[in-house]
Amino acid sequence: MSKLHAIPHPAAIHPLPILLLTLLGMMAFAMPAQAQGDTQTIQLVKVDVQKLSSGFRVSKIIGSNVLNDLGETIGTVDDLLFMRSEGKSLVGRIVDPNDDNVSAYAVVSVGVFLGLGTRLIAIPYGNLRIEENKITLAGATKEGLKALPEFTYTTK
User: Which domain holds residue 119?
Assistant: First the structure.
């Protein structure tokens, strides 16, 4: 004759082993992740958030008109690009704004009329003057910008 095994009543199951297994499982997932590759040190810096809040946002720069000294619209900011001077990628790296090896560029769309015949050019961001919500490129003309080499985005 076979023996029937009785299922213990839920109140008879001791909760300690279940609790220990649950805690061990949680600890396995809560362990700090180990960094891969080179270790980078991040220096925390306290910023003046009141002063920073009056800054000019990148989202406001992109799409803005670029004017010359005469107030004529000579192009539109299409994008901003940052790269290391030796051509290395900044992806996954800490960008130090005081690093002389990091360069910023504005990609400017120069069009003929209503966006027809536009071409992109890249100019050093430092050449732009941003004042009173206006972006000015001193000494520039539409014809002068069109004479610069055309910029094209890579497919990366």
Answer: 56-146
| 129 domain residue, yes or no | yes
Q: What is the Cα Rg of the chain in Å? A: 29
CB atoms within 10 A of CB 65: 13
The answer as to whether 3 is a domain residue is: no
Q: Is 91 helix (H, G, I), strand (E, B) or coil?
A: coil
Task: Report the greatest alpha carbon distance in the chain.
Answer: 105
Q: Are 96 and 40 in contact (CB under 8 A)?
A: no
Domain count for the chain, please give it.
Answer: 1
The answer to the question of residue 112 being in a domain is: yes
Q: What are 83's strand-pairing partners?
A: 103
Could you report the per-residue pLDDT of 89-123, keeping only the tens digit for each? 667 666 666 677 778 899 999 976 665 678 999 99
Token reading at 143: 């014809």
Contact between 61 and 77 under an 8 Å Cβ cutoff? The reply is: yes
CATH code of the domain in which 93 resides: 2.30.30.240
Instruction: Give the DSSP H or E segment for 94.
Output: none
Predicted TM-score of the model (pTM): 0.62
Residue 36 lies in a domain: no
